[in-house]
UniProtKB/TrEMBL annotation:
One of its GO terms (biological process) is one-carbon metabolic process. Its EC number is 3.5.4.16. Zn(2+) binds at residues 97, 100, 168. This is GTP cyclohydrolase 1. It catalyses: GTP + H2O = 7,8-dihydroneopterin 3'-triphosphate + formate + H(+). Homopolymer. Belongs to the GTP cyclohydrolase I family. Residues 1-10 have a biased composition (Pro residues). It comes from Stella humosa. Pathway: Cofactor biosynthesis; 7,8-dihydroneopterin triphosphate biosynthesis; 7,8-dihydroneopterin triphosphate from GTP: step 1/1. Keywords: GTP-binding, Hydrolase, Metal-binding, Nucleotide-binding, One-carbon metabolism, Zinc. Residues 1-24 are annotated as: Disordered.
Amino acid sequence: MDALTLPPPDRTSAAPTTGRPTREEAEAAIRTLIGWAGDDVGREGLLDTPARVVRAYEEFFGGYRLDPVEILNRTFDETEGYDEMVLLKDIRFESHCEHHMVPIIGRAHVAYLPRSRVVGISKLARVVDAYARRLQIQEKLTAQIAQAIDTALQPLGVAVVIEAQHQCMTTRGVHKPGVSMVTSRMLGAFRTDPVARQEFMLAIGGRAGAAAA
Ligand SMILES: [Zn+2]
């Protein structure tokens, strides 16, 4: 439906792709990683682990099977003249960084200024999840959420701010717990009109300094 909503096709290898690996292949890969970590894949406590991990991956990465623009496409055209900001804040999400495949846990604040179409507010949370449940970097996650809302609703403006902790920073590497990363994407009026942007920043609770566009 929309190139943005599909996982990018693999154009890096000339050989035809063999498609999605089977569940058995995925479980075998987990056994390899357990052995690489130094444990015995045959020990009793680990026997069912590959199957469990693969099931967990279906949950962690279920976003690839969702089309965020499609989620937003059922809109309510009757806004009754409502033309003020619609904001859903503190949407908790769990994602995984594409560099280390460890969790990114954070909150998204999503707002738009309706032109004529509004959407059920739970749909905004579902769009956040549809992109979060993929391998991500926070900057791309932020931009994709904003772009999907812009494409589907064609509003006067979209604002997305994400604050998140990256476990690749807290549990490995520099080991810096408590550090949050803040990213923002402003489109339309939120980009061009300082008053609109300030209203949004105040509404999400004074994160304006870190998230100024
Ligand atoms: Zn990472």
